[in-house]
Fold each of these.
Amino acid sequence: MSNQEKVEVIDNSSTFNFKEEIPFNKPYIIGKELEYIEDAVKSGKLSGNGKYSKFCHEFFKKRYGFKECLLTNSCTDALEMAAILLNIENGDEVIMPSYTFVSTANAFELRGARIIFADSQPDNPNVDVQSIEALISPKTKAIVVVHYAGVACQMDEIMKLANDNGIFVVEDAAQGIESYYKGRALGSIGHLAAFSFHETKNIISGEGGLLTVNDDRFIARAEIIWEKGTNRSAFFRGEVAKYNWVDIGSSYLPSEVTAAFLFAQLENVETIQEKRKSLWNNYHQGFQKIESQGLVKLPTIPDFATNNAHMFYLLCDNLEERTLLIKHLRSYNIRAVFHYLSLHKSPYFLKENDEKDLPMSDLYENTLLRLPFFYELSDLHQNYIIEKINDFYINK
Ligand SMILES: *Cc1c(COP(=O)(O)O)cnc(C)c1O
């Protein structure tokens, strides 16, 4: 913080307003991102699966214990690869929460699946195990869980349900980097998992993702699907004399520009996480009073899960209150945002499906509010946000 900023705040403490908006998110550079990109360009190999991609793969396997992993251009890509790997076909049913990002569903819809939406839990937006159980049928081929805000779903119960019924589990761990379930890294538990390095996540590369493969049966084919349905990777390792079209696939691998940026972020993962956890704790601390008065609900972390500080959200009492709070914050140049619209009520889904009742999903759609959260958020700005939210509830 510069001295000038400090003076400004003290001088105008009651009327102070930031001229520039405090955004919800802001991409940032923390280490050698640009140096590594330059090195990748100069090394003469800028397409995918080069040195930096391999550095990233090694990092992930070593730190999180994934059996195999492949960088992709997005989490959406990784989910699409998962749907191909599971041989999802017309009419197969795939169970997933309605309260999720559209890519979770689209990846399976593209292969002809019937998407079956489950409800969220009362205590957090993660999918409810009983809701999944009630939806399992002989046609169920996969369950996709979403670790919302990086907080683990109830994986033991979900894996047992899946194994008892011969169903595959895909973890949408887009928000789950550096988070654990009973000591196991998210993304290492399901048969397959997908991460995102979109600029809104903890670790970023602009766009970017990762497929993790935790079941040996999928390893060889994952690499082929990744490389446009060819055995090009085996060719470069000298295992086959020529590479050929051997399966379906697409161009899922990112260029070395993306991998170089990502690797520089990974080298700083501990610094990034320390900062994010401190921001999360500041928010949590700052709202203790209004929470104890029953004015808002704050996120809770179950005993079996860790907090990777992916996001900080509040639960308002109802939609009207949330709308007023967003407006109040906008008037102070603070950008707070709601999150998913329940997919079971989306125009696309309702074209082919009847409306069903998923009350918890609707509750989060209407009451959850995400606060500005990014590596470079300063204490000054964060305290200002906390103050304005407390003002809203105390003067309501
Ligand atoms: C961000 C996100 C995605 C999409 O990630 P991309 O890398 O942008 O494709 C998918 N699912 C969830 C739960 C997400 O939060």
Amino acid sequence: MPNFYSPEDIIRPEILALSAYHVPPATGMIKLDAMENPYPLPSALRDEIAQLTLNAPVNRYPDASAATLKATLRQALGIADDMDILLGNGSDEIIQIIAMAVAKPGAVLMSAEPAFVMFRMIATFANIQYAGVPLRKDFSLDLDAMLAAIAQHRPAVIFLAYPNNPTGNLFDPAAIESILQTTSGIVVVDEAYHAFADASFIDKLSQYPNLLLMRTLSKSGLAGLRLGLLIGRSEWLKQLEKVRLPYNIGIMTQLIAEKVLHHTTVLSQQAEAIKSERTKMNTFLGTMRGVEVYPSDANFILFRVNAASQIFQALKQHNILIKNLDGSHPLLENCLRVTVGTPDENSQFCAALRTILSETV
Ligand SMILES: *Cc1c(COP(=O)(O)O)cnc(C)c1O
């Protein structure tokens, strides 16, 4: 019998030091913590999906190139013919593909913090160094700090979410363009919340050879399918394709996403409903004493209170789950993030918060 290794003996120390991405249990709760679209698909469309799944050849591997789905995406999203598309099992997987592909010894992955937590986590998984450059106090991009960090670290890749998660704002596009013009590496503009913002870098792809644009269907209503995409020049995407596992997009995802993409008005109407609820919630939060609310171009709202953990717990007692960001980054002290839900969910959240705030002061 050999002397068996324990995990501590063979797992990389930086993995041992991580805490796993925590998804809190939410059964029976009003779930406003994960930027999901709260609306189901219309029942006629769900019937069509049922028919598709009935006949899906699940004994076969899916189309490894997902050619039909890509063609539909190209049409639905208005992707230029001279740009390639890479598909991921969620855009999380695309971040991982990029990080693995560029992870030479000493290579750096950079972002502006507070950022989407997966940028840092995936950098660790892929064994690439991570550099987070703090945003300004108002969550705008600190261009001077970014340019200094670029000069210092020479990052292989910079990830910028546009709008940013968890702050909800769009960075100044001119600042992002300065970064594109300065850095030698690639810049991935992550437009996960594009459906709720009236801005995009998609038209800049032809101008900047080092720009890659990432989207996902998750936040606009198909989180359960897991489909993300990267748009960019073939010289980049054909290299990244080598790292993508051949059957990463399952047949159900291919069939259902394609079907729904032929009904994009359904998703855009839901996004419009979410945007108008966002306005209402923002106004409500603005009227609450002891609440500082930040403007949002996404389907969630960041706000600051006096005792975030206490209010977070009290909302849980009211059966409402949001996200507590206190302690996750110095700039997010006492910050909470609420996803915009249905009108009914949002009014329950607002009523509960009003009650809690009147009790805690
Ligand atoms: C939610 C999110 C993603 C990941 O979405 P997937 O569900 O993996 O497609 C990527 N980037 C940002 C900024 C996000 O908030």
